[in-house]
Each structure stands twice: as structure tokens, then as C-alpha cells.
Design goal:
homodimer, Arc Repressor Mutant, subunit A, SH3 type barrels, binds manganese (II) ion, DNA-binding
DNA sequence: TAATAAAGTTAGATTAACCTAACAAATATA
DNA sequence: TATATTTGTTAGGTTAATCTAACTTTATTA
């Protein structure tokens, strides 16, 4: 059985591996920063995880999940996202509130609980931020990876997921009435600063910054 | 903020205080046994809880919750019982499965979560074992304290709560189709061994042992 | 009441997860 | 390529929660 902390390291490594898709390994400092601990602490834990065959690790080398480490990491991620969905759908939490509580709930140990929860939620595919929820067998729907910023004038899309999950951004999205699934049309791309004029559903056109457009994953529409 | 372990000590002390109503204090060994640790461990923790003003404690003396300790204990108990209710009502857990998972869930820190959960469950008064669920302000419905064993031949009652929450007992109750709210009529009390002949709802009469009758709390019916 | 038993404490270790400070290796850059 | 910078490790400590073994206090009982 894994400790709370060990689980967090595995999940962190998994998420870092999603971030650099072509280079799924991470460094000690990178992990330490991600987890909010000092590098010395991470080194200790990585040695321990290596002993348990959850990561491959060599002195001064990069860190990679083993198959079993990955399996465990995905199980935590699954729980995290199912709980976020529960909080959002059933308990009326807003999407900027769910993460913090799910960070605790993801460590509850009960196979039955996860599976029953998934059933109760009707086997959701995506969490409130649009991130895919792994199935019990580890399968996971593909992650959207096109950014709004990559579109050209005239193109249509649907919001698939948020890249930035900060409260500041999520609150701003709410203000703009943007949520997962919202349709957006790009009216104009301003070459000067990369900002966009967009139409959100049938609202009045408005301008958003390049930073904004680089924080939203979308699925293109024909 | 209290640690997982500190919370468990407070809840334990609270429950022990319910058990001996006229003598709401506990001893070191009693607490240690309840929590499954050695007395030396409990002594250390009690000193720490005393420092934090959560219990009154003097060397070789009995232990009592302070007002603030009690308030905290009740908050944990509230979470425990709300989660048990959630698991039972929404996720189809059986009543002998809920406790173990609730033991973990009760330590999740989020005031909003508890209150939203309570609302989602429609402000339940009792958990799946018939135990009262404290309100957000600390109020708690009265605990049933009459045992089935205290009734005489001819008297009617409704099952209010289980005193013994062991899997063995709960499974046996299920087999007998007894749950919280089930009506029972005492047909005969056997003086020899304290066993009872009872009628469960409209089933065929049957005999139960004294041990059985001392494990069920009931509310008497006219 | 004196001896025995039960209840509770203390001292000293252990383990997990963290830290700082000093050092070593690998990488980037002048 | 030599030096500086970045990255990562080691040694030695701390804190929370646990333990065992030895000891002390309180309660029971002969
Ligand atoms: Mn999250
Ligand atoms: Mn976590
Ligand atoms: Mn319980
Ligand atoms: Mn607990």
C-alpha cells in the first residue's frame, strides 16, 4: 500500500509526463518544484520509489514511471477527476473550488468506492475542467491539444478543456459565460499582439488577449 | 488545524463519553485500547491535546474533553455519519461496509463539503446504523437507549439503532430482514436464558438470543 | 494495612517525511 | 576547453506518531 505522499509523487510524475509528451521523464528539481518540497526531499523519496519498483531512477539521471508506477498514478488521477466531477455536478461546487478538495479525496482507499462513484456519475468522460477521466482499466480518452490561439480568422470551435486552471482564469471564463462545450468563432486575429476578436455562442463580439487564447484547449468545428 | 490522529483521539473520547453517560471521562488504557495503540502512545498524545486545550488531563488522572475538544469531536462524528449515509443511500454500500470508508472520509477538510453533502442527502437525522447525525451547530437528536432486551411479552417496538455494529451482527440482521425502522413484537420472554420469541413485521415468529436482544436499540410503540 | 494487581508514565528507539548546508556532477557558455 | 551555472546528492537534524522495557502511582484485596 502506498502512502499519501508516495501517491502524490506518482501523480506528479504522470502529469509532468503529459506536459512533455515526447520526453516523459522528469528531473529531481522539477518534481520538487511541482510538489512544493526541496530537492533533497525529492531525492530521498525517489530512492524509495525506486526500491518499490515504481520509478526508474539513477543518480543524476532522469526519472521515469515504471508500468506499475504508471498504473498507480493513473488510478489516483482517475479518483481525482471523478471526485471533481462529483463535487461539481452533485454538490454545486464551482470549477475553481473542486481541485483543492479532490486533492484530499483522491487518497481515499476503496476500490468499491471509486467504481460506485463512477457509476453514480454515469460514467463521465471528462472532469469539470475538460480533462479526460481514466477508466477502471486505465484507458483514457485522448486529451485535446489544440489551443484557441492556433486558430485563424473564420474558424469555429468548441471549448474542450482549460490549460490554465487558476482561480483567476476560471473566474474570468465564468464572467465571459464560457464553459466546457461553449462554441466560439474566431472573427479576427490581431497580428500586432496576438489578441483575438471572438464571438462566444451568440453574444456580442469581443476581444481576448493572446495569453487568454493560449490557455484554452479547443476542438475545431467544420 | 488538527492532524488525522488528533482527530481520531477526540472522536474516540467523545464516543467513550457516550458509552458511560454518567461518567464522561476515560482512562489512558481505555483510550489506547479503543484506538488500537499502546498506552505509552496515548499518554504522549494526551499531553499534546492538553497543550492545545482540547482535553483536560493530569498525570494519572482521568481524561475529559474541553468544550472546544468536544466541538471538534462532534464535527468529526458529523462527517463520519454523513459519509456513511452517502455511501449507503447513494452508492449502494451495505451497512456493514460503510464504516471503514467513512473512517477515512471523516478527515477530509472542507466546511463547504460537509454542509453541501448534508443538503444533498436532504438533512438526514440518522445514519445507516440508526445513530443520530449532529447538525452543523453541534445539536444532535437524542440517542435511543432502550434495548430490545428490556421489553416484556406483548410489547411492540421499532428498531432505532444497532448497538453492535460488527459485520457478523449486521449480516445476521439482514438475514432476518431487520433494518432501522423495522417493527418487532415481543411474544414471549424465556426466563431460563433471556432469549425472546419475537415477530418481525408480519413474518413467522422466531426465537432470538439474549445477546441478540441486548444488541438492538428500539423505540417502544404503544 | 500491607501486599498484589492494575493503570499510567518515562526513557530511549524507530520510521516517514520533511528541512538546511555543504558538496559533487552535468551542462551551458565565454 | 576552462569556467560558471544549473542540477542533483549527501550528511546531519527535526517533528509526529508509533513502539518496548522499565518504572511509578493508584486501586484492590487478603
Ligand atoms: Mn484537479
Ligand atoms: Mn493529492
Ligand atoms: Mn461508523
Ligand atoms: Mn478516523
Amino acid at each position: 500500500m502506498l502512502s499519501y505522499t508516495e501517491e502524490n509523487y506518482l501523480k506528479a510524475l504522470l502529469k509532468l509526463s503529459f506536459q512533455n509528451e515526447d520526453r516523459p521523464e522528469a528531473g529531481t528539481n522539477e518534481m520538487a518544484a511541482y510538489l512544493g518540497v526541496k530537492p533533497a526531499t525529492a531525492t530521498d523519496m525517489l530512492k524509495k520509489l525506486k526500491e518499490k519498483d515504481l520509478v526508474t531512477y539513477k543518480k543524476y539521471g532522469k526519472i521515469l514511471l515504471t508500468d506499475i508506477g504508471r498504473k498507480n498514478g493513473i488510478a489516483i488521477l482517475r479518483k481525482h477527476r471523478l471526485w471533481e466531477t462529483f463535487l461539481y455536478e452533485k454538490l454545486d461546487f464551482s470549477w475553481d473550488e473542486v481541485h483543492e478538495v479532490a486533492e484530499q479525496l483522491e487518497h481515499i482507499q476503496s476500490a468499491k468506492l471509486v467504481d460506485k462513484l463512477e457509476e453514480f456519475l454515469n460514467f463521465p468522460e471528462f472532469d469539470p475542467h475538460g480533462d479526460p477521466i481514466p477508466k477502471a482499466n486505465g484507458d483514457m480518452p485522448a486529451i485535446a491539444k489544440t489551443l484557441l490561439a492556433e486558430l485563424n480568422a473564420g474558424q469555429n470551435c468548441k471549448v474542450a478543456a482549460v490549460k490554465d486552471t487558476s482561480t483567476l482564469f476560471l473566474r474570468y471564463l465564468e464572467k465571459l459565460k464560457i464553459t466546457i462545450g461553449t462554441k466560439i468563432k474566431v472573427l479576427e486575429v490581431i497580428a500586432f499582439d496576438g489578441s483575438l476578436n471572438i464571438q462566444i455562442e451568440n453574444e456580442e463580439p469581443r476581444s481576448v488577449s493572446m495569453k487568454f487564447a493560449e490557455s484554452l484547449f479547443i476542438n475545431q468545428l467544420p
